[in-house]
Specification:
GO molecular function: ATP binding; carbohydrate binding; protein serine/threonine kinase activity
Number of helices: 1
Oligomer: single chain
CATH class: Mainly Beta
Largest sheet: 4 strands, antiparallel
Strand content: 25-35%
Signal peptide: 1-29
InterPro entries: Bulb-type_lectin_dom (IPR001480), Bulb-type_lectin_dom_sf (IPR036426)
Protein name: non-specific serine/threonine protein kinase
Number of domains: 1
GO cellular component, one term: plasma membrane
C-alpha cells in the first residue's frame, strides 16, 4: 500500500523538479542584449562570470537623475566604473534597447533617444550588446565589434581600456 502511494506521487514530484529547472534557466541573468529585448529600470545585464553588472543607477540626490553604468557586481553602492550618459541624465522611467537600426539607445518616458554608441554607429539591425567579464560593453554587428565602452573610459581605469 505504501509503495502505491509513493508511485502515485512520483509524477507530481517529477513535474515539480522540471518546473524548478525551467525557472532556474530563465531566471539567470544574461550578459547579452538582443534586438527586441530591453533593460528597464532595476533590471541588469551581468557578465558571464558575474564580475560586472550593467544597469541604471541614481545619484541619490533630490534631482532624481539616473544613469546607465557598469559597476562591479559585488558593489552594493553601485559605484560606476563606466557611465554611458554622463551628460544626459534620465529623470524618469529608463529603458536600454537596440533600436531598429542596430544602435544601442537609452530612452525615457518622453521617448527621446540617447545613443550609447555615439562614436561609431551600427549599419544594420543585426546587432547585439554583450557585457564582458573585463567590464567592457561591446556592440556587435554579426561577428564584427562596432563599438566598445573601453574606447570611452570614465574616471575609473580598467585593464584593457584605451
Amino acid at each position: 500500500m505504501a509503495n502505491m502511494t509513493v508511485a502515485r506521487g512520483l509524477p507530481f514530484l517529477v513535474f515539480l523538479v522540471m518546473l524548478c529547472c525551467y525557472f532556474v534557466c530563465f531566471c539567470e541573468a544574461s550578459d547579452t542584449l538582443r534586438p527586441g529585448e530591453s533593460v528597464r529600470n532595476n533590471e541588469t545585464l551581468v557578465s558571464a562570470r558575474g564580475l560586472f553588472e550593467l544597469g541604471f543607477f541614481g545619484t541619490g540626490g533630490s534631482s532624481g537623475s539616473h544613469y546607465l553604468g557598469i559597476w562591479f557586481k559585488n558593489d552594493k553602492n553601485k559605484k560606476a566604473v563606466w557611465v554611458a550618459n554622463r551628460e544626459n541624465p534620465i529623470l524618469d522611467s529608463r529603458n536600454l534597447s537596440i533600436r531598429y537600426d542596430g544602435n544601442l539607445v537609452i530612452t525615457d518616458m518622453r521617448l527621446i533617444p540617447v545613443i550609447v554608441n555615439y562614436g561609431r554607429l551600427a549599419t544594420s539591425g543585426n546587432t547585439s550588446a554583450k557585457l564582458l567579464d573585463s567590464g567592457n560593453l561591446l556592440l556587435i554587428e554579426g561577428e564584427k565589434i562596432v563599438w566598445q565602452s573601453f574606447d570611452y573610459p570614465c574616471d575609473t581605469f580598467l585593464p584593457g581600456m584605451k
